[in-house]
Amino acid sequence: MHDRLLPWYAAHRRDLPWRAPERSPWGVLVSEVMLQQTPVARVLPVWERWMSRWPTPSALAAAPTGDAVREWGRLGYPRRALRLHAAATAVRDAHDGQVPADEAVLRTLPGVGDYTAAAVSAFAFGRRATVVDTNVRRVQARSVSGLALPAPALTRAETALAARLLPEDDEQTATWSVAVMELGALVCTARAPRCSACPLADVCAWRAAGSPAPTGPPRRGQRWTGTDRQCRGTLLQVLRDSAGPVPAHRLQAAWPVPGVPDEQGQAARQRERCLDALVAEGLVEPLPGARFRLPGT
DNA sequence: AATCCGTGGCT
DNA sequence: TAGCCAAGGAT
């Protein structure tokens, strides 16, 4: 596989700023956190502004958390902004301001799980690490295991397979991992894979089996309308888009939104519950006089 | 282990 | 059009 995929990657790789030679480990960490469950196209402009404003972990750590939440914009999952700020603070206070290279140390940072720790160690420092994301899982499931899609949750076997597929040469492992991910992102996609453009097509176990349809239970979709997630997003958007403190009545006016049913005032209770949770999580700061704002802004 | 946590483009 | 899903993490 290596002699097929590595040349393909060299020819087709996207020139993303966090892959540029001059990017810092901090830039790589920021990109990996932003890319969690979020498409590249939406991350690009936010990453550029973020790195321009906060070129180092210490720079971010010196800013109010609310500034990070606002700069996060509409990337989604705004707790990631909070965790990235916390990670920057930990880097400043416990690691002399330098993003650590060791996977196990990275793993201790807020918002950094198994995937992100391996990715930063590999992509920012060139270390040997087993990087397993949804792209890697899908490419392996198809090309090696002959399955249309990977299992719902990451298995030990998948991690073991990813480790076994890494090139022996330590110098090549990071490039290999990003190449597998790039293939999953551009060719071996979840919905409509472009097998005719795939460098692995003639060795792919899934194709050899006749490209069978997915087996197992269909993924249950995430509801959205009327959920706490929609409510939280709506409340936070009001605060993001406001320069100063927001009176409670403006939040009350924002929820429920048109299209969301409000039986017996349940939407009002939901709004208060979500607002309380946002405050408890540190995404919103309550002020005297029934006003609210992004923390420290 | 299952669920929660945003957002918006794509088919 | 309404799901589907995108470089996961925390609990």
Automatic annotation (TrEMBL):
Asked if the keyword Heme belongs to this entry, the reply reads no
The question of whether NADP is a record keyword is answered with no
Swiss-Prot/TrEMBL catalytic activity: Hydrolyzes free adenine bases from 7,8-dihydro-8-oxoguanine:adenine mismatched double-stranded DNA, leaving an apurinic site
CDD domains documented for this protein = ENDO3c (cd00056)
Which EC class heads this enzyme's classification? Answer: hydrolase
A GO molecular function term, named singly, is: purine-specific mismatch base pair DNA N-glycosylase activity
Q: Which Pfam families does the entry link to?
A: EndIII_4Fe-2S, HhH-GPD
Q: Which residues form a coiled coil?
A: none
Q: Which GO terms describe its biological process?
A: base-excision repair; mismatch repair
Q: Which InterPro entries match?
A: DNA_glycosylase, Endonuclease-III-like_CS2, Endonuclease3_FeS-loop_motif, HhH-GPD_domain, HhH_base_excis_C, MIG/MutY
Q: Which cofactor does it need?
A: [4Fe-4S] cluster
Task: Give every HhH-GPD domain span.
Answer: 34-186
Q: What is its EC number?
A: 3.2.2.31
Q: Which SUPFAM superfamilies match?
A: DNA-glycosylase (SSF48150)
Sequence intervals crossing the membrane: none
Name the UniProt key words of this record, in alphabetical order: 4Fe-4S, DNA damage, DNA repair, Glycosidase, Hydrolase, Iron, Iron-sulfur, Metal-binding
PANTHER family to which the protein is assigned, alphabetical: ADENINE DNA GLYCOSYLASE (PTHR42944)
State the family named in the UniProt similarity comment for this chain: Belongs to the Nth/MutY family.
Protein's name in the database: Adenine DNA glycosylase
The organism is Serinicoccus chungangensis
